[in-house]
Amino acid sequence: MRIHRSSLSLLLLLVAATIGGGGQAAGQSVKSADGMWTLTTDTDVLAVKKESELMINASSAGSAMAKCPDVDGVTFTIPAHGHGGSTTPEAKKVGTCSYHVSGLTPTMGGDWLLHLQLKEGSKTTTAVEFNLKAQ
Ligand SMILES: [Cu+2]
Predict the structure, then answer these.
(1) Which pLDDT value is given to residue 17?
(2) Neighbours of ion ligand 1 (CB under 5 A)
(3) Where are the beta strands (DSSP E) in the chain?
(4) Tens of pLDDT, residues 42-54
(5) Which residue, 94, 80, 92, 90, is CA-closest to 131?
(6) Most-buried pick from 10, 88, 89, 119 (CB within 10 A)?
């Protein structure tokens, strides 16, 4: 009986820890403008006035053999106010189908937009936009 009770409290502890830690880790999946790629971030919430970075993974909507595009440009703005953050955003491809985005510093709370221009070779092919919440 004693064993049963302690394993039950361990289980409750694990459940509480899972619920408590679940608030921050939500990512976001969006399609590129041309519908060719699904891109998923590891978070969609940023802290105000803190320089943050995030990772994006791409997968092809079509052929599994398709080569992931390179980054052609990145902007980070709050459309309701028409301004950017206080650091310069940078994005680069890492590995075959991942992107590292850094320099994301929202200056105020609200709905921010991360816009990535994508290219293949020297040709701009499509774009993708993520809605990020700064709080
Ligand atoms: Cu503003």
Answers:
(1) 44
(2) 81, 108
(3) 28-31, 37-41, 45-46, 52-60, 70-78, 83-84, 90-94, 98-104, 110-120, 123-134
(4) 999 999 999 999 9
(5) 80
(6) 89
Residue 96 lies in a domain: yes
How many domains does one find in the chain? 1
Range of the domain at 76: 25-134
Evaluate if pTM is beyond 0.90: no
Nearest to 71 by CA among 43, 32, 44, 35: 32
Amino acid (1-letter code) at residue 107: T
Ligand 1 centroid–CA 135 distance in Å is 13
Q: Residue 11: inside a domain, yes or no?
A: no
Token pair 């608030």 is found at: 23
Distance 62 CA to ligand 1 centre (A): 39
Instruction: Give the CATH number of the domain where residue 84 resides.
Output: 2.60.40.1930
| Domain presence at residue 123 | yes
